[in-house]
Design a protein that fits this description.
CATH superfamily: Alanine racemase
Structural class: alpha/beta
Order of helices and strands: HEHEHEHEHEHEHEHE
CATH architecture: Alpha-Beta Barrel
CATH class: Alpha Beta
CATH topology: TIM Barrel
Shape: globular
Largest sheet: 8 strands, parallel
Strand content: 15-25%
Distance between the termini: 21 Å
Number of strands: 8
Strand order of the largest sheet: 7-6-5-4-3-2-1-8
């Protein structure tokens, strides 16, 4: 399928998931994860109508960012090292992986220098897998309280990654739990403004994530494909 056809197919599947769960498809945003495709393919994806681009390493993203600056909205979706913050803040419009205080402080400092506020998702390791980054659910409220004074950060939502599963239904409890955590955190009043966004769901499970309240889905293989970057 062409990139346009892939996007149309994804939009159809999103609409069907929303119909099943009584949601408005307009409330679901798609991040095209381009980390496994070339800068040229990323450009073609944007031309096909994919406005949001997701990358997880600055060295690999730099060429795409320079090519598409001003044409796309960039999302940093990978684990972010504190020493790399200077490369990311000011270039990426959203950070999906805020999960520790040292990182929060670096983002805040860089944002203050640039005179901006950085929209961030707090990453939660709902599944508890050792291979995944993120706060433990029990740590979330305390962490949210600790970043309250860092005005360079604008917390907007929560992010998680579900375990890889042959049956997407197996991921539902993870997504449901993140939705519950969002409601509980908002009810606690620990943040100045309520969180409104849920970044969850990838190519293999995004429909289940949408049924459980995802407002951002991060789609790579199903949307832009996978290229041999060494070929």
């Amino acid at each position: 399928m062409s990139l346009e056809q892939r996007l149309q197919d994804v939009e159809r599947r999103i609409a069907e998931a929303c119909a099943r769960s009584g949601r408005d498809p307009g409330d679901v945003n798609v991040v095209a994860v381009t980390k496994y495709v070339s800068a040229n393919t990323a450009r073609l994806a944007v031309e096909a109508g994919m406005r949001h681009i997701g990358e997880n390493r600055w060295p690999a993203a730099e060429e795409k960012w320079r090519l598409l600056e001003g044409q796309a909205v960039f999302h940093y979706i990978g684990s972010l090292q504190s020493k790399k913050v200077k490369d990311v803040v000011g270039k990426f419009d959203y950070i999906h992986s805020l999960d520790r205080m040292s990182l929060a402080e670096e983002i805040h400092k860089r944002a203050v220098i640039l005179g901006i506020r950085v929209p961030c998702f707090l990453q939660v390791n709902v599944s508890g897998e050792d291979s995944k980054h993120g706060l433990a659910p029990a740590e979330l409220a305390g962490f949210a309280a600790s970043i309250r004074g860092l005005h360079g950060i604008k917390p907007i939502g929560l992010m998680t990654m579900a375990p890889v599963a042959d049956d997407p239904e197996e991921t539902r409890p993870v997504f449901s739990r993140l939705s519950t955590l969002l409601r509980e955190l908002n009810a606690s009043g620990v943040l100045d403004e309520p969180l409104t966004e849920l970044s969850m769901g990838m190519s293999g499970d995004f429909e289940v994530a949408i049924e459980e309240g995802a407002t951002w889905v991060r789609l790579g293989s199903v949307l832009v494909g996978h290229e041999d970057m060494n070929g």
